[in-house]
Structures are given as structure tokens and as C-alpha cells.
Amino acid sequence: MADKVAVVTGSNKGLGFGIVKELCKRGVGSVYLTARDSQRGLQAVEKIKQEGLCPEFHQLDVSDRRSVKKFAEYLKQKHNGLDILINNAAITTEHPYKITYEEAKRVIEINYKSYFNIQDYLFPILNKNARVINVSSSFGHLANLKNTYWIERLTKLDIKTEDVDAFVDWFLTSVKNETLKKENFGTETFLAYRVSKIAACALTRVQNRNIDRNIAINSLHPGFIKTDMTRDSGELTVEEASKTPVYLALDADQSLKGKYIWYDKTEMDWEDLNADLDCYNKEEFKKFMGRYMSSD
Fold this sequence. Notes:
With 296 residues, this protein is of the alpha/beta class. The chain has helices spanning 14-25, 38-49, 65-79, 101-121, 148-154, 161-176, 191-210, 238-241, 243-250, 283-294; strands at 5-8, 30-35, 56-59, 82-87, 126-135, 216-220, 260-261, 267-268.
């Protein structure tokens, strides 16, 4: 364990912060807390060090190819590789119902397209038997999508990156042209976030099929967590929610690949269109929506 190198993107606060702490507690030798803002990242590292743990910091903007390349070169030079990669960096829209094209484009850029920067520069330095966890959401489950054409295209056995890109482009074009239809999703809330996470889960399958070196890549719904993103609503604390991503990083069988994992460590069928998605119509979710609306 002490010789392992782990990276958690977007980890200066929230779930990412909790994952860094948990990895350090489990004895992973080098754990990198990363953040776009260096000052916030360094402050987060110092906060964890006060608990007797020793994470390291490196600036990382996942949407900036130069930033990802620079970080990959640093890791290659210092450690000659990487064992654990947890893609946690994500944003959502400011309002659950209102959405602009520029805002939707930014959400897609961070939550989906940044995965290609990671894939291009960090995947090549993954060690044999490395583990990659793409942090998704219950909003990333395919049951959030109602459009038959896209459901069929995203569930093809031979799905390719081009299929996922086309889905994302269809959404962005619909937003830009103001032709987006609620019936394609069955809801009007957080559509850019939903699309970005559905796309990330679909891409996980493509990545897992194309990767070698016995590397395991899975996507994860970490639960409905009390963080800034949820306006401190939720059913899990950050500490509780950090357990499953760390389980996937350290304890799960290496044969677990290309799956969609629920926050309780169970495998869920991503293609089950009748899946019971846990945060819908619950009191905490209603509270969450109320806080979002009141902050508008």
C-alpha cells in the first residue's frame, strides 16, 4: 500500500476532500489532492495535515490540456506511474430549471470532455492493475434518459466514443436552438448535469473496453451527499460517502470492470430503465431543491 500513488481530481472540498483523507488513512503512500485554484488546494492540504495525515498537492485544471499534461509529466518523473485515479471534478448549473447554452457547454466541458484530457495524458502512465473510478451520480443512470434513439445508441455492444460525443452534441445543439424537449428526459431539472453524467458512464464502458494492462475502470454513484453542491442537503456525510470510492480503489476484486457501482458497493444495471433511483421524491431531495430555489 505504501508504494501506491493516487490522484483525486477536484478534491479541495466535498467528496474529493473526503476521499483524499480516506486514502491517506488507509496508508496509500502518495495521495495527490488536486484543485484548479492553488490557494484553495494548499489550504485543503494543510487542513488534512492537521489531522496527522500527509497528502500532497498539485495544481490541476482538468479542462486545460496543458495543465493535465504538466501534471502527468510531473507524476511520470517523480513516481514513474500512477495506481489510482479518481475522476471527481464536476460542476452543475446555478439553477435547476433555467439553462443557457454557455452554461450547458461549461458543464459538459468539465464533467465529460475533460475525461479525454485525463485519458490522453494520465492513462498512459497508469501502472499495471491500476484502478480508475469515474465519479458519476444517480443522475448519470440511463433511466434518466427517455429518448429511445439515444438509449439504443448508448447501449450498443460496440459503442464508441463517437456515439457518446454525438449524444452530447445533440443535447448542446438542442439547448442552443431552444428545441430541448422535457419528454426526452422526463424532467426539467439539472439537464446539463444529467447529460454530462450519462455521457461519463457511457464513456466508462468505452474506456474499459479499450484499456490494457489489466486496468479496471468503473463509474460510481457515491450517494446523495451533504456538500456545497447539494446545499448541505443529503443523506450521507462526506466521510460516509468516501468509503465506497476507496473500496473500489483498494479492495474490490480486479475483475470488476466497466460497471456502474452504487454507493453501498453493489453493482447496479446501468441499462435498467425501471431502476429505483434513490434520491427522487425523498424529503432530503425536496429540501435540496428548496434550497436551490431559495438561493435563486
